[in-house]
Amino acid sequence: MKTILIISPHLDDAVLSCGATIAALHTQGHHITTATVFTHPGTATDKHTHYSQRRQQDEQALALLGAACIHLGFVDAPFRHTTWNSFSTLLFHHHTPPHQLQLVQDIAAAINTLIQQLQPHEVWYPLGVGGHIDHHLVWHSSTLLNHLPTQHVFYEECPYAMVPGWAAIRWNSIGAKAITYGTDTPVPYSPLTQIPLPFIHNYITNAHDKQASLAAFNKEWQAQPPQPFTVTQWQLNGRLYTQSPSCVPTTFFQQQCKAIACYTTEWPALFGPQEQHIAETLSQNIHNHQYCGQYWYKN
């Protein structure tokens, strides 16, 4: 049986992105530990109770899936820099600001300590789809640990990866080269603000944020090379990453939805006001009666 360490940027990302797979692996006898990086509001004392509640929600959600839970205690982006306070300012980051480089080193050191303690067979890192600054920093930290013998895996984050073409945009934006294509049919362009995903419309705060988000998305889209978006193998920094979807019976998807519902402070903005909207939104990832998440394994 395998030991798997999943690195989650925030207090819900692992469950949102990997929940059904975690539940399936647990039933097979594998040992899963999730380490969440950004779990604290720093000096914003008025938010301490809220973050304590979120950490409790995370523990409850992961327990439902059969995973152990570790919180690393790094400060969430809006409390590190007040300019990161909206959809357009938090997302669309594919390069690390110089003032965050030490933080990347610190995150990598914390993850390395866990790897030495747990000796996992695999470590799963966020790919950084959408370019959320915190997701990008965790991804960047993973590149500092590439030399370790542990299997290195990227997972596509939900709900960002549900935006058509955004995963490929991420690969291209971090300098990856497409090696193998799944199909020659490109994903058609859709304006970000017209995509019917609740999180987009709930997280965009005002007209200026809407305009800035659309402009940033269009800039990313237009910067891509003229290639199909259904790539099954990428090359990054001399290493190959091969797509390996995890498709599991929908009973595990139902477990994931129950776990997501534990995050009562978060899921309404992500999926809509009713709990049933969680499954309704995520159901687009169901194919042939199986729920599928996207993972990339380093060759």
TrEMBL record:
It comes from the Bacteria. GO terms for molecular function: hydrolase activity, acting on carbon-nitrogen (but not peptide) bonds, in linear amides. InterPro entries: GlcNAc_PI_deacetylase-related, LmbE-like_dom_sf. Coiled coil: none annotated. Pfam families: PIG-L. PANTHER family: BLR3841 PROTEIN, N-ACETYLGLUCOSAMINYL-PHOSPHATIDYLINOSITOL DE-N-ACETYLASE-RELATED. This is N-acetylglucosaminyl deacetylase, LmbE family. It comes from Filimonas zeae.
